[in-house]
Design goal:
17 helices; Rossmann fold; globular; six-stranded parallel β-sheet; alpha/beta; nine-stranded mixed β-sheet; 490 residues
Length: 490
Amino acid sequence: MFIVMVATECAPVAKVGGLADVVFGLSRELEVRGNSVEIILPKYDCMRYDHICGLQEAFHDLLVPFYDQWIHCSVFFGFVHGRKCFFIEPHSHNNFFNRGIYYGHQDDPERFAFFCRAALEFMLKSNKQPDIIHCHDWQTGLVPVLLFDIYKYLGMSHPRVCYTLHNLKHQGVTGGHILRAVGLNRPDYYVNQDRLQDNFNPSAINLMKGGIVYSNFVTTVSPGYAWEIQNTDLGYGLNHTLHVHGQKFGGILNGIDYDVWNPEIDCYIPYNYGIDTLDVKYGNKEALRHRLLLRQDFKPLISYIGRLDHQKGVDLIKHAIFYALDNGCQFVLLGSSPDPGINDSFRHLKHHLNNNPDCHLEIGYNEELSHLIYAGADMIVIPSLFEPCGLTQMIAMKYGTVPIVRATGGLKDTVFDADYSDKPYNERNGYVFNDANREGLESAMHRAIGMWHAYPQYFRELMVNGMRYDYSWNHPGQHYMNIYEYIREK
């Protein structure tokens, strides 16, 4: 099967969040299963070009219609850790992808609407006829609309579209001028409740809604999140649309790449270990303390790794730090925020705790350090207000680090409480709390810390249970193959 991924991120060359890991990991799994996979991305100036092998111009004169002009583009090809990637570079005064950042400009809807049109124009002009075009998030929501209302009639009648929703908080709500920009010149037709009209603002269009309506199948990144976005306010206004198209909608849990996240072969940690050599893990705990100048003492080390934003529960993260320190634990944090105010708040907290020998806050992101924290910590807290999937808890479990999570989205689908889960004891792997408040977080941390001290053999069983789970791309890869086969026959 020939599959083309159209996305705005792909790890590690262009990464903001989990979307990038999904595009890379799923593409790799699909290739392992014998499919031909290509990835189409914008050519950003801020990409990690050191992760692209053999970058060269592959298509020189791609002319893409946009408003009342044709924008000249070059398309480059290169391998990103073995994945075949095409990068679209427009030569335009709009300067779409030379901004120094991936997202965050007022004209983001225009930038990525242009990318949608350019990706399809490139497939048409280079005579690519994929079986499946797999699109991701609001930025590529116009691809299925353009395919079925324009490009199908230009010769691209073969491809079917799978559309994956990674986070419904961001939907690409914008003005109707975007339609004219990409050649969809019937506003009365598209600004309609059954098509692209936003469910809250009748004068706006919703690019994510367009992707849902026009694609052949819609997925999101965990079964728990699929239920939440249909039945709670986490749907951010798209609940009705998802119910209308419920017959083509489902949740598939993301996977992680065990060639990258695996303590048995991890090149970023000083001591490799597995289930049968679990005691070796504590050499990494000692190394982590040494690196961060924490005291060597017999006490649990709790961690947080990830973005610092409201979705992740920043107030609860701060509370977890002080609760850990007040209860005889150490705490290590690695993360940064797209919000300067939140970053400043954590920098102030770092300064306040700077001389505490049991705490280290690293404001930023360091790939090597993240591996060492996963390997060296005893527990990791993930108090998210909502979490479509979450990779952190899956990675932590592979490293024998016990997760303490809030029951939402993919966290609820992957972490099963040591005390209250209805799973058998040998399948329980962490601690879960329901209410997104301090009392809920404290209840789970109290139980985890108590288990570490009072029943070390049971705590070790939790560690081993987590390490046994298979959260690789193997199972989700098969689920996506089943979807592709299903829509290809329609």
